[in-house]
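Q: What would this chain look like folded?
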Amino acid sequence: MTVDEISTVDVPAQKGATAVLLKNGATPIRKNAAEVAAGTAEPLYKAAEYGDAMMARAGEIAVEKGCTPGQALLDHSGTDSVLIELACAERSAEIAFRKVRTDAVYDSSPQWS
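A: My prediction, written as structure tokens:
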């Protein structure tokens, strides 16, 4: 194989390209998930966003292993470090959301007193 050119673009549009190397668009969420799992940061994203990132990672594993994303999630949720970090961040985001709702103070309106 010979490589004539390497370009870094968000949307590859080279006519006649025989291969495309994609950059990972989930790097910030994964970096934050790793920091949350290590206890060095607070979640920056909503729990659902971490869940979406988990399914995207399961999709990557599924392609590699030749199975469905659901099966990849089941089989690798305890062994894949990225899935573990994302799951930890998802749970932390859920807890943070519940804490905010629990700690919220609602003022009564004089109109309804």
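The mean pLDDT is 79.
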